[in-house]
């Protein structure tokens, strides 16, 4: 398989290759959303309601894509977002993502639900790495993971607040994601024909030792959490605002609240001392019926944009999408499915190709706008269709 142009010219092409390589259950885990997937769809559609206002006859031979996030200077205006079960999509999983981020001068955020250890993922990157925290396994498991992240050199903690329970992702039920992650071979039997139809993935899955426990969720007295126990562990250890007190005492570094979708939660994040927030619908995978995150971004920026760093996440499929979010005022963007399709399609090479596509998109968009840099973007470069905002 070649990732060179013209076969792979955009993220849809990487999605197509990922779909061909992965069994249905794994692909739909990556690709799907909650319930009717209305929020998932609106996250992408919202970008079409933001129009550009270009300034022509402006010469910009080069464009500066650099941003500073949480004190870290990045060469790209996007970070690679945390994605759980990445090792199921490709054996290198989080290792590949961390390495690609570092190679390209940006940051990687490691999910608590990583299939690789905190230490090994950090060792892959030449750039900054951040750790995303769930309280799965309880406070003891979380404190141990935070201590390991601190010792390994992670420089910020992203606390996800939008997952009191796992969203109702119906594709996962239909295509056997739960059975695939379980221990029972009998339960997997129904899905064997589809798995056998994807021999490259199957060979890598078998060579990688099949389903593994999560090495960074070590429950005191019990050991690493099994993949089949995640849903119950999340529900029994919901994060609350009061947890931030002990989290801050243990971490003692920058904290970012991930999953903010209202002005009220944005203000509460500031009140609790968060250095940043991520405006995010969790990729449309939690509460369906929520507006796409781009629609709530303007109101949140107006409320707290001068008090904390506001990052954006949701529905990004082109570099021009990121330019729109940052023209609104977002400090930088988180890229999730956009690189995960590449990872699922071809591991390290696929992620590198995804990053290259987004970089070229952003540079082209800035030049067509007549804008010299990410730092120079502002609301004068865009117009919102009537009724776009959700406040």
Overview of the molecule:
The model has no long low-confidence stretch (mean pLDDT 94). The protein has a single domain (11-382), classed as TIM Barrel (Alpha-Beta Barrel). It is globular, with a radius of gyration of 20 Å. Helix 5 packs parallel to helix 18 (337-369), helix 6 runs parallel beside helix 7 (138-152) and helix 17 (319-328) crosses helix 18. The N and C termini lie far apart (46 Å). The strands form 4 sheets. The protein has an 8-stranded parallel sheet with strand order 4-13-12-11-10-7-6-5. The protein is 44% helix and 14% strand. It has 391 residues and is an alpha/beta fold. A hairpin with a 2-residue loop joins strand 2 and strand 3.
The biggest beta sheet is recorded as: 8 strands, parallel
Helix content: 40-55%
Q: Which sequence of strands runs across the widest sheet?
A: 4-13-12-11-10-7-6-5
Individual helix count: 18
Please state roughly what percent of the residues sit in beta strands, choosing from under 5%, 5-15%, 15-25%, 25-35%, 35-45% or over 45%.
5-15%
Structural class: alpha/beta
Counting structural domains, the number is 1
Unreliable sequence segments: none
Radius of gyration: 20 Å
Q: In the CATH scheme, what's the topology name?
A: TIM Barrel
Distance between the termini: 46 Å
Count the beta strands. 14
Shape: globular
Known CATH architecture: Alpha-Beta Barrel
CATH class: Alpha Beta
